[in-house]
Amino acid sequence: MKPGRRRATGLLVALLLTLASAGAAAAHNLPYSLATLIVRADGAYRLELRCHTAALVTGLPQGHLSVENQAAFAKLSDAEVAGRTQLMAGYLRAAFRLAANGRPLDVPAPAFPPVAAIRADAAMTAQTAAPSAPVVLAGRLPPGARTLALTFPPELGSVLLKIDLPGRPPQTQALTPAEPGRPIALGAGLRPSPFATFREYLRLGFGHILPAGPDHILFVVSLFLLIPRWKPLAAQVTAFTLAHSVTLALAVFGLVALPSKLVEVMIAVSIAVVALDNVRTEQLAPWRPFVVFGFGLLHGLGFASVLRDLGLPRGQEALSLAAFNLGIEAGQLSVLAGCFALFGWTLRQPWYRRRVVVPASLAIAAVAATWAVQRTFA
Q1: Which of 306, 377, 368 lies closest to 29 in space, CA to CA?
Q2: DSSP strand E in the chain: where?
Q3: What is the pTM of this model?
Q4: Nearest Cα to 244, choosing from 308, 175, 301?
Q5: Beta bridge partners of 46
Q6: Which of 167, 199, 251, 354 has the most C-beta neighbours closer than 10 Å?
Q7: What percent of the chain clears pLDDT 90, i.e. is strictly above it?
Q8: pLDDT tier, 191 (very low <50, low <70, confident <90, very high otherwise)
Q9: Contact of 288 with 277, CB cutoff 8 Å
Q10: With 90 as the cut, is the pLDDT of residue 322 above it?
């Protein structure tokens, strides 16, 4: 094989292995920490943080423990787990940043779930994931507090923060590791500006594709592989966009509901079907955009998972939903642009189909079939 071909094949294999491993680890299990801040009218607040607590107390990156780390954790006594929890609670208290009116506040001691709950968290895999018991910080804001800002420790990874204020529309912030949070207006009757809402939900939509949506990424890559030209791609991407926009809106507003397990299995099946169709034919069949539209309906239900967790701000539902959709589209176009950048030079080669389309599509179908089995028996 010529050096150029070896390079293309190596890049393709690396990309597929990365996506496969990401999908096995995430597969719509939260690849981030989810925080909920509740502030009462009397100034009392409660911050509930849902993360992989077992990874946190053992100093590991956020995510399910490997088999080796699970075995090591199981050997710890309850006293050792409790001791590590106390150490991490002290660290979090020092590493969290709370500020009211721009002035630092004392951080209350975090309350971790019981040792038994942390052990259950340690035993979870990507296929058996369930919401973790929260780590809780509870305190009271000083009188006259008009704004509140939070900065989370980097060990928590990216954080999706839902903000619940009395008599106010819910707010959200999507924060990268250790990124300072934007000040939250506490004054009565105030709400986040339309620009702030648009920006936050645009980031959420984009992040649901890159990097948090390996299954959606593989679906878009499958569309690209068969006919890698913008015009035929446009018909499929447009059908996919229209479909997922419809079911995303219907699911968020509670008008359509399917079991999440069924949705996740069918999303994996849709990837495998499109990938195998790439192997079966060299031409874009007239019916394929309609099939893509049907699969888009399923993916829209998958996209709705984040918005169901966070909700839509009252009075800004249409704006936030539109921004989330635009973020998804920006993520999908970024995937297509990456495909053109990575494989563009191979598209006119006589061996493109034999050495790129067929092996890549078979690999994608294998990954998707694995996800389908895992999600069926999870």
Answers
A1: 306
A2: 33-39, 44-50, 97-100, 103-104, 135-140, 147-151, 159-164, 171-175, 184-185
A3: 0.57
A4: 301
A5: 38, 138
A6: 251
A7: 8
A8: low
A9: yes
A10: no
- Which alpha helices (H) appear in 32-178, and where do they start and end? 53-57, 67-74, 78-95, 115-123
pLDDT attached to residue 143 = 78
For the purposes of burial, counting CB atoms within 10 Å of the CB of 213, is it exposed (0-12), middle (13-18) or buried (19 or more)?
buried
Contact 64, 52 (CB under 8 A): yes
Query: How many CA within 13 A on the CB side of residue 98?
Result: 19
pLDDT for 47 beyond 90? yes
Backbone angles phi, psi at 194, to 5 degrees: -55, -35
Alpha-carbon span 118 to 125, nearest angstrom? 14
- β-sheet with 184-185: strand ranges across: 103-104, 97-100, 147-151, 184-185
Strands 159-164 and 147-151: unpaired
Provide DSSP, 159-173: EEEEEE-TTS--EEE
How many Å apart are CA 43 and CA 176, to the nearest integer? 27
Distance of alpha carbon 306 from alpha carbon 309, whole angstroms: 5
The string of pLDDT tens digits covering residues 291-314 is: 888 888 888 887 777 676 666 776
Distance of alpha carbon 303 from alpha carbon 139, whole angstroms: 34
Rounded CA-CA distance 33/154 in Å is 11
Per-residue exposure over 102-139, b if at least 16 CB sit within 10 Å of its own CB, e if not: eeebebbebebbebeebbbbbebbbbebeebbbbebee
